[in-house]
Specification:
- By secondary structure, the protein is of the alpha/beta class.
- It folds into 2 domains: 2-172, NAD(P)-binding Rossmann-like Domain (Rossmann fold, 3-Layer(aba) Sandwich), CATH 3.40.50; 176-299, N-(1-d-carboxylethyl)-l-norvaline Dehydrogenase, domain 2, CATH 1.10.1040.10.
- The protein has helices at 10-19, 32-41, 80-87, 106-111, 156-163, 174-195, 199-203, 206-225, 232-245, 252-258, 269-278, 284-299; strands at 2-6, 24-28, 43-47, 50-54, 57-59, 70-73, 96-99, 119-124, 127-132, 135-140, 144-147, 168-170.
- Helix 5 links the parallel strand 11 and strand 12.
- The longest helix has 22 residues, at 174-195.
- The protein is globular.
Length: 303
Amino acid sequence: MRVSIIGDGAMGLLFASYLSLSADVAVFSRRNERSELRNRNGITVLVKDGRRVFHPVFTTDKSMMAGSELVILFVKSASTVSVIDEYKEFIPDDAYIMTLQNGAGHFEELNAFFPEDRIIIGVTEHNASLSDECTLRHGGTGPTEIGMMECEVPAWIPEVFNASSIDTSVSSSVMESVWRKLLTNSSLSTATALLMCSIDEIGRSGAAFSLVGRLLKEAVETAASDGYSFSYDDVLSMLREKAGNACNAYTSIYADILNGRKTEVDYISGYVVKRAQANGIDVPYQRAAVDIIHAKEEIGINC
């Protein structure tokens, strides 16, 4: 199977690396020099028990997307529309388009370009951060869920993911899966950006984890107002375990602020705020989180 990945950040590299075990993978970038460096050196993935080196293909040549059966988006959420507009003429008409991006609201953006029966939405518990251009720290693992709004995901897609050591299942309610991941992102991940710390540092601080709980409570209430019921206690327990088991694990939203980049907060806590407003729910902690993170984007990490 030929897989094209648009986006050569940490998560794009992680999935490209593992999928290269079972598929012909090309990663598309705007920077030719960086692509050439990675083609020479491969990608070293650091895991708890050692390291592995992978060799997906890196390119800036969009014509190499020809023949792709699956195109996976790993660009920042705010860039989705502009990136698809740039690549749309090169994406095969019969290719499936998968988003494994953080947050929510991507289906609507993709549906403006592609029919519903070609769009796959996914969520994953994996996280990764770049140590350098060719080295990736695989900080956390977990299941990946994919699904479609009204159609069935072709069986060969989860088969290839699972054969590549990416534990993947098909969700019968993909928006419930999106909300489940959003609960984590809009609480634990958002807190790492507010406090500028790692996931495990959150786990070692009672005050920090109390903030996670307050953010989570509002997100659970908002999900329920959208028709998706989750147990606050169960999710909080899962987050406590996740924070306790993490080792030097940093979130992408933290890394964006650290490196002076625009974050995806509008698709994470911002999505919670948007749905809460639509459903008449007050979410003051989530609203404050969005404002503070935008302030950090504008002023810098010291604010």
